[in-house]
Amino acid sequence: MTMKSRHFFPIPNLARLVGAAICFFAPMLFAAPPAKLNIVFITADDMNHDSAGCYGCPIKDLTPNMDKLAAAGMRFQYAYSTVAVCQPVREIMHTGMYPHRNGAMGFLPLKPEVRTLNQQLHDAGYLISMIGKEPHYQPAEKFCVDYAPQLIIPNTNPPRQAPRSPTRLYELTREFLKMAAAQGKPFFHHVNCTDPHRPFIGYNGPDDLAHGEPPSRFVRREELTGVPGFLEDLPAVRKEMAQYYTSVRRLDDCIGQVLKALDESGQRDNTLVMFYGGDHGMSVPFAKSNDYENSSRGALILRWPGVIRPGGVDTNDLVATIDFTPTLLEAAALPTIPGMDGRSFLPALKGEKMSGWDRVFTFYNQSSGKAWLLMRCIRTKDRAYIWNAWADGKMEYHAENMQGLTWNAMVKAAPANPQIKERVEFYLHRVPEEFYDLTNDRVERHNLIADPARQKEIEALRGELLALLRRTGDPLAEAFAHRDNPELLRAAKARLAAEYPTPAKGKNKAKAANAEEQ
């Protein structure tokens, strides 16, 4: 047999075959890595979860853009803010840590050693924006912002704010996404809408646009069939709720314009959109700046083409703002931050079942006015236990949620209405402990802490809360464990006051009282 006969194919044919194989397999062997995931994160300010249509809003067709986002993605029925006030909850969203661990005990900067979501994204090459609420992300260097446009819209009289302007948010989003494309970078576009934070549209008269542009729709008082169940159905309350819902409509307009700019950029299919509304509940009594259901529960909607099945609703898991950073980092395939308290709920986004997500813990520490209103809460789908460490029968509660028409209407109606009078008194002073069965009392009006039939389950929740406080080093842990010893609580409060000193009394008092309006 000659050497030539040993070849099955003539050499020219073999060469062509090898060449074809290289052409076929080379893209698999040497292809560029997949593009990094882009992220658009939109927050609302002071919005109750059930103000969105997909969460049961009583005003018909109020939030078409939120509803469209939910239809194209997934919403969580039970999502909660770890602290129901502006700066602390935003800093928690970006660190995955409880407030006593990251330093966000009030309107305060993060501790020097704490690392943020933005730092992880920055190190991975992301271009990062921050539109709105910049003063609530401190210290600024931990948020690595590449794009922070001017928020006051030029040549507007009275001055208008970009976070209350759908048109301006569209323009800024286009500009930022073009910048990311020009630099060839993935992006983290963080839009902090101001609506429906006070002032509400129309508060100062029919022509009052509350520092923004006109919404696409105004809600009339006649459209309200009632008010949220934790409030009193009074004419002034209905009037303020119509103003509030009108502000929610402008928020929805803002969301629509941000997403329109994203679609036009061609990046929709490689972008995870997350909307959380709001950073906590609306600015009225028994909502914002407390530990109630309507303080903490938010509307959480995510859209991720090709990963999240459209129209999904998670009704099983209780997630919280403390879980946002772990989830986004895992979704982006980036390293986690060591020591986080939160967990990733990415499996739920992929349609997988999760276990151990049946309760959340919420906190309240210091108000914008620097008052220590210490509260701790453990919450399941249908139970809530709250410890009001500040409630001693003498101290009165005061916060920004008591501005406006609703609280004043309650106070005015109290002398002639024993039920409202009792409600006003309770809000001002509370009691040390509260326990609610939400199966028949979702708005938490009936405190069952003294019910003999409930003591076993109350004690179980106390035990779980204490274990969490001790495990995470909460400065109130031992004061809670020994609630019958007021000296321990006084000592804990003294340590907090020393670690987080209050400015001189009277100095900038007006500014402190209105800090949340920024």
Describe it.
With 518 residues, the protein is an alpha/beta fold. The protein has 2 domains: 38-354, Alkaline Phosphatase, subunit A; 364-517, no CATH class. It contains 16 helices and 13 strands. The protein has helices spanning 11-30, 64-72, 86-93, 99-102, 117-123, 166-183, 235-265, 293-296, 324-331, 346-349, 405-413, 418-429, 455-471, 477-481, 486-499, 509-513, and strands spanning 38-43, 74-80, 127-128, 152-153, 160-161, 187-192, 271-277, 297-303, 312-320, 360-366, 372-379, 383-388, 433-437. The chain has a 7-stranded mixed β-sheet, with helices on both faces. Helix 6 (166-183) packs parallel to helix 7 (235-265) and helix 7 runs antiparallel to helix 11. Residues 1-12, 17-24, 26-30 and 505-518 have low confidence and may be disordered.
